[in-house]
Amino acid sequence: MREVKTYGLFVDGVERPSTTQSTFAVTAPADGTLVGWAARGNEVDVATAVTAARRAFPAWANLPPADRERHLLRAADLLEARAASLHDLIIDESGSTIRKARFEVSYSANLLRAAAGEARRLYGDTFPNDKPHRLSLVLREPLGVVAVVSPFNGPLVLLVKMVAFALAAGNSVIAKPSEETPLIAVALARILHEAGLPPGVFNVVTGYGAECGRPLIAHPNINGIAFTGSTATGVRIMQAAAPHMHRLQLELGGKNPLLVLADMDPESAADIAAAGAFFHGGQICMASARLIVEEKIARPFAEALARRAASLHLGDLRDERTAYGPLINAAALEKVQDHVATAVAAGAEQLTGGQVHEGLVFQPTVLWQPPHETAVWCEETFGPVVAVTAVPDLETAIALANESQYGLSAGVLTNNMVRGLTAARRIRCGAVHVGMHSFQSDALAPVGGFGLSGIGRSGGKYSIEHFTELKWISVELGEV
Q: Do 149 and 98 contact (CB within 8 A), yes or no?
């Protein structure tokens, strides 16, 4: 039996209720049961958090890198020590499987350790001057207060990715998690506080976008914003942030292509494609959604993929066999259903799936040759649905991959590295993975997209560069 708890805001090193004492229910997408109560923050709570973060910033920024490194390494150890309880919270709150929950915790610890190492790498420069009596230095300094807005689909790992590098660079942080998954963010705040972060360095304000998200990103006393989520929300964040010229890092949506070339074995390619398409029910921005296959193997590949999709086990989220769980809410399910129905009505062949399995769980669905103007081909479905189309050659495949307003990630399945690298160089997106599907992560890699898939890059030194400012200092060493 799940113990239902109330979680407060985490501000200035203390977990506290909102100023109005109000809360909102967090329910499990798997069965609709109550997971916990979250504090319903508002504009006053945001202002309190910003004040705390600004007060904490100078001391944290001036802390020796070895100390910031030590705190982040300690947080990674604590995260792993609390793994069992964090697994339960991720499963219950976001509808993740036990395997995905384990991935989130282990990868989050990896991110914290990678960020800890970057704390020592805020490198600057010197450069030669035309005046021999002048010394010029270029220093890298933290932005200040960074607002982090995190999504529901990776409630721990995507939050940690944005937070850890911002902290390593010497910034203080205020996190506003998705209202669908606020509790894991408070659990992270407790861990970071226990790891030794001073009060005010990391704060969490939970609540709804209009009540606390918008006041946070529009606040004049923050210096940067990191957001992972939908393109539509990213556009609204840009608009709200524009008057204050806040630094933006936006990792947004994708409709990611996976090219399958004719030299591949259709069965092996189907195994890889299924993993890229159906992880977490397709609720991943880098999921492989548009499968572009050379004609020679297109139909055998599509049929093999349909067999794998139909064989996926859907059931108890704590069962190791379960491939994925529910969509996050009823609106998400309705969108998936609409994309599938519209494509089939327009002439797509449904090879498998297309129906609700149970509750908010949608069957893994493979559509053959949907018209390219349909939503399932050109819009982000964010569900367990893939569209397969046949093309005559690599040139056509690359052109079709680039016919998108998005440009986040892509995969190219081939045993021919010349053809694979040719495609990788010409596909316009933030990452191309040759020999693998489009859903890949690495703590040190630059993750981000072209077009409507975002602005900036996150990961390793690329996050450090984003969360810092460059300052030129000149020193006159002789008589002017």
A: no
| Residue 148, both tokens | 């982090």
CB 11: neighbour CB atoms within 10 A? Answer: 27
Contact of 53 with 224, CB cutoff 8 Å? no
Output the CATH code of domain 256-434. Answer: 3.40.309.10
Instruction: Give pLDDT, residue 417.
Output: 96
- Tell me the H-state helices in 281-347: 295-311, 330-345
Q: Which residues contact 66 (CB under 8 A, 6 or more apart)?
A: 119, 120
Burial class of residue 139 in the structure, from the number of CB atoms within 10 Å of its CB (0-12 exposed, 13-18 middle, 19+ buried): middle
Whether the pLDDT of residue 292 is over 80: the answer is: yes
* pTM, 2 dp: 0.96
Placement of tokens 């053809």 in the chain: 419
Gap between the Cα atoms of 291 and 295, Å rounded:
12
Please give the CATH architecture assigned to the domain spanning 5-252+453-472: 3-Layer(aba) Sandwich (3.40)
The answer to whether the beta carbons of residues 121 and 460 sit under 8 Å apart is no
- Residue ranges of alpha helices (H) inside 125-180 are 157-168
Domain-wise residue ranges, the chain: 5-252+453-472, 256-434
Decide: residue 476, CB within 10 A, 0-12 exposed, 13-18 middle, 19+ buried: exposed
Tokens (6 digits) for 387: 């569209």
Distance, C-alpha 401 to centroid of its chain: 22
Of 141, 170, 157, 161, nearest to 69 (Cα)?
170
Active site residues: 251, 285
Angle (CA) 301-98-150 rounded to 5° is 90
**What pLDDT was estimated at residue 478?**
83
